[in-house]
Amino acid sequence: MTLERRYAEMQNARTSHRLDANALLARRPPINKRLFQAIINARCTDALLWSFTSLIGIVVACLHSIPLLTNSWVYLTEPRPFNKTNENGEFLETVFHYRAGYFQMCREHISNVYDTDDIALYLSRKESELQCQWNPIFTGEDLTEFSSATLAIENRLAVPALMHVIGATMCYVAFCLGALGHIKRNSRTLLSAILYICGGLVVLMGVLQFVCVVDDELAPRMKPNAAGEPSKFTFQYGYSFFFSSLSFLPLQMCACFHAFLYFRRYPTAIDKMKVVPGLEAKMRRAEVDNTMYITPAEPVKRGSLCGVYPPAHSTSSKLQKSSVSPSHMQIPPPPPPRLSSIKKSPSIIFVIENV
C-alpha cells in the first residue's frame, strides 16, 4: 500500500511539474516580441553604433568589389553567322548568349527557337563551348569575329570602369579612416563620412554611364528590320549591375552614421564651437541680440544652435514693465529756431533794438 501511494505521489508530482512548465511557456511572449523588446531596451552606445556602421561598410565594400570582379553586368543575345548557307548563298545566323563586364566578356551557344536545324553539326567545338575574352581596350586584339554589339559596348566601358574603380577605392579608404577615427577619436571620422558620400556619387555616375552605353548601342539594333521581322538582339541587366545600384543606400547610411558619431563627441554648444568654424561668432551675436531684445533680421531655422530668442509677448511685457507712465514724463523743450528761418522784417528788427 505504501509503494502504491509513493508511486501515485510521484506521478502527481510529474504531472504538476509538466503543467507548470506548459503554463510558463504559455505566459512567455513569442520570440519576435522578445527580440523587438531587446532592440528597444538596448542603449545606442558609440561602440554599438560603430559596430553596426562597420558591418554596413563591409557590405558596401562587397557590393563594390563583386561587380568589379565579375562579368555579369548585362546579358545579351546576339545573332552570329555560322557555316551554312541558304538558297541565295547567304550565311545563316544563330543566336549566341553573351555576358559582359568591365574587363571581360563571355559567349556561349544555347539552342533556341530560331534554330531550324541541328546547329551543333555546323559549329566547331570551340564555338559551341563557353568562350571568354578580355576587353580589347587592354589587350588590343581584334574580336570582330567574336561579337559585334557586345564588342561595341566593351570598347566604350573605359570611363565607367575608371569611375567605378575610383569610387570603390574612395569607399575602401573611407572604411579605414572610419576605423582609425573611432580608435583615436579624431577628425578622421568626419573625413570618412565625406569620402563615403563622394565615393558613392562617383560610383553612381559610373553606373549611369554604363546604362547610357548599353541603351545607345542596343536601342537601334533592337528595332524590327525592313521586312517587319523582330530583332534577335535582346538584353537584360545582371546581378553585378544591381549590386552596384543598390550599394548607394547603405553607403549613405555609413556616411550619416559616421557624421553622427563624430558630432556626438561634442554634446554641448561650447564643445561644438571648437570644431564648427564661425559658430562662436554666430553664438555671440545671438546672445547680444537676446540681451537687447532685438529680433534677428534673418530667419533662424528651428533647432539651430543660434535660434535662442525670446518670444514677442515676453519682450513686449518686459518693455511695458520698464516704461514710465505718461503723467510722469517730462516733455523736453523744443529746440531754438534757426537764424536762417527768421525773416528780416522791420517789426522784428525793432523788437531786437528795444531789447
From TrEMBL:
<dbReference type="GO" id="GO:0098943">
    <property type="term" value="P:neurotransmitter receptor transport, postsynaptic endosome to lysosome"/>
</dbReference>
<protein>
    <submittedName>
        <fullName>Voltage-dependent calcium channel gamma-5 subunit</fullName>
    </submittedName>
</protein>
<keyword id="KW-0812">Transmembrane</keyword>
<dbReference type="GO" id="GO:0016247">
    <property type="term" value="F:channel regulator activity"/>
</dbReference>
<dbReference type="GO" id="GO:0098839">
    <property type="term" value="C:postsynaptic density membrane"/>
</dbReference>
<feature type="transmembrane region" description="Helical">
    <location>
        <begin position="47"/>
        <end position="66"/>
    </location>
</feature>
<feature type="transmembrane region" description="Helical">
    <location>
        <begin position="193"/>
        <end position="211"/>
    </location>
</feature>
<dbReference type="GO" id="GO:0032281">
    <property type="term" value="C:AMPA glutamate receptor complex"/>
</dbReference>
<feature type="compositionally biased region" description="Low complexity">
    <location>
        <begin position="314"/>
        <end position="330"/>
    </location>
</feature>
<keyword id="KW-1133">Transmembrane helix</keyword>
<dbReference type="InterPro" id="IPR004031">
    <property type="entry name" value="PMP22/EMP/MP20/Claudin"/>
</dbReference>
<keyword id="KW-0472">Membrane</keyword>
<dbReference type="InterPro" id="IPR051072">
    <property type="entry name" value="CACNG_subunit"/>
</dbReference>
<feature type="region of interest" description="Disordered">
    <location>
        <begin position="312"/>
        <end position="338"/>
    </location>
</feature>
<dbReference type="GO" id="GO:0005245">
    <property type="term" value="F:voltage-gated calcium channel activity"/>
</dbReference>
<dbReference type="GO" id="GO:0019226">
    <property type="term" value="P:transmission of nerve impulse"/>
</dbReference>
<dbReference type="GO" id="GO:0051968">
    <property type="term" value="P:positive regulation of synaptic transmission, glutamatergic"/>
</dbReference>
<dbReference type="GO" id="GO:0098970">
    <property type="term" value="P:postsynaptic neurotransmitter receptor diffusion trapping"/>
</dbReference>
<dbReference type="Pfam" id="PF13903">
    <property type="entry name" value="Claudin_2"/>
</dbReference>
<feature type="transmembrane region" description="Helical">
    <location>
        <begin position="241"/>
        <end position="263"/>
    </location>
</feature>
<dbReference type="GO" id="GO:0099590">
    <property type="term" value="P:neurotransmitter receptor internalization"/>
</dbReference>
<feature type="transmembrane region" description="Helical">
    <location>
        <begin position="161"/>
        <end position="181"/>
    </location>
</feature>
